[in-house]
Specification:
homodimer; alpha+beta; 60s Ribosomal Protein L30, Chain: A; CofE-like fold; three-stranded antiparallel β-sheet
């Protein structure tokens, strides 16, 4: 059994209003990749956010008192902190240069996923433009999926991913922030193991496992390959949601 | 750019004393896979542990007072708790059926990675046999790597992985517990992004990203494909260690 992940070459720079599904269809076709039933497309968050125009300019933001206090403690720009707070349910941890929050979408990440790298060049040479996460990444993934399915007469999955830090270990990991048409979590509890004993584990975070693998070849910003085509995902496709992957706070011993 | 992960078919059941490198060479050869420079082999922890005879039988264990107290609070077998404590630096969290520790190897996981599924059939029909993690997984990976490199005249990487739960999100993720000949962490700080601005992030947990992707097709126990061959790892190989991936406790805000 093989899993093949291909970073789609020559994907254009994305601008607000662009049709991501259309760009993917052109780029895969140009690369000689024929989308088939069961394939999955993994998309970097930044292209979806840019297409949706999820931009904010720091010059237009007035920080609240809470933001000013937190800016003082973290050494961050108070307007940036205000923006992070406006995208978050709560602040979990902070220290100099670090601000970890529970995003409104439910997951835990630094700076509510807000970033300004790669935005500047498109909108004038300013580092005041910030890129926010898509408003509803599951819905974004679904819309892209439906258009590609319609055009290609296939049944596929679509994931939107971002690079997240984590507890306990160094380095970032590609992580799902939205998906459609595929499982986030796969429940193997009750399956027999090699010797016929029931497995005591396991719910496998199949979506996040794929996100991590795809992130590996998605390339960092300098390489510009924000879409990865996946063939050989080993679990049946079904409807799915980011929610499967989010541990509710009351079940989480590390929040 | 493509990354291809292939679960090697027909890998035999492993017994204490088995030569894992030899088994991999036979199985890859049998599957028509020629190992090349830059390839990576990802191994499920259980086959390395079994080959190294890392077994303990609960019937031979006398629980300490600490283990008895913790068993009472978690509802776990006190002898199992004793075994977990003997493999751990400290207990981080517990509740009914849950025991999260910092393993002596430095990482955080449930039950110190000790498991009994898949052991029983080999050693009589008893669920008293427990499988511990390899004593020094970096060294285990290196020994396997050296033998395969010698036999194939190649320069490769080897990783040993396990399925770990995590903070904040549901489901387990394939995670590195030892590696040799490849980076765990890749430092991209200071690289320019698409527009020539310096990337503010990022240290990428490349080893863990690959572990997660490989875990996806490693198959669960019922399928028995504990070795995954990887071609197309996008970063240069170098010497490496699990230590790169472990965040020291004094830098960890969630331990």
């Amino acid at each position: 059994m093989s899993l093949t992940l291909t970073a789609i070459p020559n994907f254009p720079l994305v601008k607000p209003g662009d049709d991501i599904a259309g760009l993917i269809l052109s780029a895969t076709s140009g690369a000689g990749i024929e989308i088939q039933d069961g394939d999955i497309l993994v998309l970097a968050q930044k292209i979806v956010s840019k297409a949706e125009g999820r931009l904010a300019n720091l010059s237009e933001i007035t920080p609240s008192e809470q933001a000013l206090a937190l800016a003082e403690k973290t050494g961050k720009d108070a307007r940036m902190v205000e923006l992070v707070l406006s995208e978050s349910n709560k602040v979990l941890r902070y220290r100099t240069n670090v601000l970890i929050v529970e995003h409104k979408l439910g997951f835990v990440c630094a700076n509510a996923g807000i970033d300004h790298s790669n935005v500047e060049g498109l909108y004038g040479n300013s580092d005041e433009w910030m890129l926010l996460l898509p408003k509803n990444p599951d819905a974004s993934a679904e819309a892209i999926r439906r258009k590609i399915e319609y055009q290609t007469h296939t049944r596929i999955g679509v994931m939107i991913i971002d690079s997240h830090g984590r507890a306990w270990r160094n380095g970032t990991l590609g992580t799902v922030i939205g998906l459609s048409g595929m499982p986030g979590l796969v429940d193997l509890r009750g399956k027999p193991d090699l010797f016929g004993f029931k497995l005591k584990i396991t719910q496998v975070a199949a979506g996040d496992e794929l996100a991590a693998g795809a992130s590996l070849i998605m390339g960092q910003a300098s390489e510009g390959t924000p879409v990865v085509h996946v063939r050989g995902f080993p679990y049946p496709l079904r409807e799915g949601s980011l929610k499967e992957l989010i541990r509710p706070e009351n079940e989480d011993m590390f929040r």
